[in-house]
User: Which sequence fits this backbone?
């Protein structure tokens, strides 16, 4: 007997009545594919955006220990060395603290936050990029207030907080990591029965470990150090505040800066003549 091989036909999208409506099986697979795309697309986009954000953040510091000598020399040539009034560029230190990285849900949040904070500081510095004419530091741009200050990012990490694994990412984002221990020995607080000694470890999230923020005062190579929480972003340049801190009220720049700063405390209607914070 001969066997006649019949060509296998693909499953039809028509139902038994011969109309063009999709069969139940086809609708099921199309719906499954649509659900898969809806679930996977946001994750893929978020991963791509995070990686692109990290790669496009530029480190503007000659003090960054992760840079080679050749990279530092090239960067120094590209950085502005003076402002429009021919005064040298002043670099402000911006610091954050990472104390506890034990909870993964918290870690994901602060990793996103430190990227946003660093980017917002960059966008409100002298290094901001003007997309309107593709030039750096377009001092002739109308209606555009530009900062005259540079910056350097620091991350103060507690040695026992489980945050040291994130040092490579911090360096890629332009943060200089400073690994520190708790600077205060609670057992030395006197008297032993004092309320503060008994309760300090229960304060905030991390007790006495929070005191690593005090190491921001050790960055004495910078005229101003700003310590930030990670739930903020810089929306505009802070030149007036920096000018008021660096210049006395007797100077023209100091007087003009004080006029533009809004004072909110009623008992202190004006800033002191000399700010020695």
Assistant:
């Amino acid at each position: 007997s001969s066997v006649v091989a019949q060509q296998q036909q693909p499953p039809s999208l028509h139902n038994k009545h011969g109309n063009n409506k999709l069969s139940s099986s086809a609708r099921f697979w199309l719906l499954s594919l649509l659900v898969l795309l809806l679930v996977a697309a946001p994750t893929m986009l978020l991963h791509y955006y995070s990686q692109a954000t990290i790669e496009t953040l530029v480190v503007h510091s000659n003090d960054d220990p992760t840079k080679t000598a050749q990279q530092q020399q090239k960067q120094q040539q590209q950085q502005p060395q003076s402002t429009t009034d021919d005064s040298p560029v002043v670099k402000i230190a911006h610091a954050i603290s990472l104390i506890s990285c034990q909870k993964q849900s918290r870690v994901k949040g602060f990793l996103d936050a430190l990227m946003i904070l660093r980017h917002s500081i960059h966008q409100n510095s002298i290094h901001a990029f003007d997309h309107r004419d593709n030039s750096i530091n377009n001092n002739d741009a109308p209606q555009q207030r530009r900062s005259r200050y540079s910056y350097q990012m620091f991350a103060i990490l507690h040695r026992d907080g489980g945050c040291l694994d994130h040092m490579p990412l911090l360096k890629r984002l332009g943060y200089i990591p400073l690994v520190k221990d708790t600077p205060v020995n609670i057992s030395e607080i006197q008297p032993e029965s004092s309320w503060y000694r008994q309760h300090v470890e229960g304060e905030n999230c991390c007790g006495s470990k929070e005191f690593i923020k005090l190491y921001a005062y050790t960055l004495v190579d910078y005229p101003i150090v700003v310590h930030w929480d990670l739930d903020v972003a810089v929306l505009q340049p802070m030149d007036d505040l920096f000018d008021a801190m660096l210049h006395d009220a007797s100077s023209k720049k100091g007087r003009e800066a004080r006029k533009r700063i809004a004072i909110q405390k009623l008992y202190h209607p004006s800033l002191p003549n000399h700010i020695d914070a």
Summary: DSSP finds seven helices and six strands in the chain.
